[in-house]
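I have been asked to look over a protein record a colleague put together. This is what I was given:
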Amino acid sequence: MSDVIRLLPDSVANQIAAGEVIQRPASVVKELVENAIDAGALHIDVSVTDAGRTCIRVIDDGKGMSETDARMAFERHATSKIREASDLFSLHTMGFRGEALASIAAVAQVELRTCQQDGTLGTLLEISGSKVENQEAVACPKGSDFSVKNLFFNVPARRKFLKSNQTELSNILTEFERVALVNPEVSFTLLHNGTEMLNLPAMGLRQRIMGVFGKKLNQELLSLDVKTTMAHVHGFIGKPEASRKKGARQFFFVNGRYMRHPYFHKAVADAYVNLIPVGEQVSYFIYFDVDPANIDVNIHPTKTEIKFENEQALWQILSAAVKETLGRFNEVPSIDFDVDGMPDIPPLSTAPYTAAPASIKPSFDPTYNPFDVSSVPPSAYSSYHPKGSPDWQPLFQGLEKQTKAENAVLPDNEIWEEPAEPDSAGEGGVQTDLYSKQGAPENSMHHFQFKGSFILTSVKSGLMIIDQQRAHIKILYDRYMSQIAGHKNASQRVLFPDMVHFAPDEIPVLNEIMDDLNYLGFELSDLGSGTYAINGVPAGIEGLNPEKLLTDLLHSAIDKGSKVKEEVQSVLALSLAKAAAIVPGQVLTDEEMDNLVDSLFSASTPNYTPDGKKVLAVLKEEDIENMFK
């Protein structure tokens, strides 16, 4: 039998590694920007074309590479970061495995121009599909200039699974934000198809957060800073009143590296128990500085999952730090009497109390009756009633007879009957009366509201119970979907437009759903820098915060993350319907209940909401009869 086990060619092995490291254009941006930071760059420019499909270019002013290093950098497992296995536990750099550039070159056409700070000439290197096509000396600026073109050109199956340009651009912005948030001393710019999306000069950490997510976030954050022998935990956490159901900005960083850590997230969430509503979250930006020997960053290809040696102790430190910060924020304000510029408080006067003048003595008439016209002096009365004493008797005419009629007691053998109403259902129609008064028409009451949440109505088979909120959600959902499908909107112009700010990674998704938002009734105008004016809102959402509503709709679309436009439209319509629907406990008039029930049963599927929740239930007549046997 012949041998069957063979060594893979380097080109194939690099493509396999690329499947783990380079998953999409955002992965290329992440690896190249991190390499630029490791090279000591203080200014990094990123430019992408067609969300990275066509070209990704990263320019930095770092230390650059020599001719030999430029060639070696694209070899697999070639790195300047480690020399032996023990170096893995003393890392202070972002990259270290030497897989990124080799993986990128295996699935794209790469052009590198680099020059060292003390060099006169730089190096031009062109690689396509792991094959070096050209290398020569050129004149170029100090630092490195990477151009990655036609990503996955030789792996069409991988290219086919890329999402839409808006989704891929959003992923690029997410990776870009993570690097920018942890390196505030480095200036960044990001351009897409020649349009500047972010321009972040070097600044402080809090200012960098504001530069990425908007200045409004500054009012929501509290400073956190705790130093222990095990770790230095610092950053910012959100105020309890700034909690939200969707769109909270939550970041953990350790030693300058972004990480995901559900265990630490639970420590933060537990500190907010009983401070924020159930199901809501707050933003936080928390940075850990720990000894590199106490962490292992080499457990995941993208290095976003990190293992800590003393995880439980760090959990307790983080929990205590968050609670202590919230405690300082919620403490009772006190007055500091030692501050300069305190206003002088005049001393209590020792002068004797001033008595009323003796010449003024109060007088009153004990026999005066304000209801007795005869006791009022004619001069005083005539000033208000010039025609003399008014005649009040005509105002009370007829009241005596009416009072007697109301107080009359009906004989025991008679029942009070209300006026009969016409039967809207016609002969043979369905009776919708629940409680029929004895002797009154059977349809005198169509519906009955129970505890402000359910509508009870009689049907042929028994008693129907309708959840009024879910019924309204179903009605509004059908209406909004009809507006989107028919490209119609029912917008209500606002007198004073509200302003809403979106983060850079939200804007691509916003542009993708802008038409659908317009059909729902939102009218937005772009003011630049991620700020939009809300000039119109859907009719019928009075009392709702349009800024919060828009943010929730946007994050519902982001969470869906589907390429199927109809599914995104359904998510938008359902989110808006839930926000605009009547709430449990809202009392409805008979006319409102009639309209609600009629509209519900005009829908194609009235039994369930779009997300599968039951709208109505029927208590059968025989079951009701069995209750009284």
Q: What stands out?
A: The CA atoms of residues 486 and 519 lie 8 Å apart. The chain has a mean pLDDT of 78. Residues 205-328 form a domain with the Ribosomal Protein S5; domain 2 fold (CATH 3.30.230.10). The first strand starts at residue 43 and ends at 49.
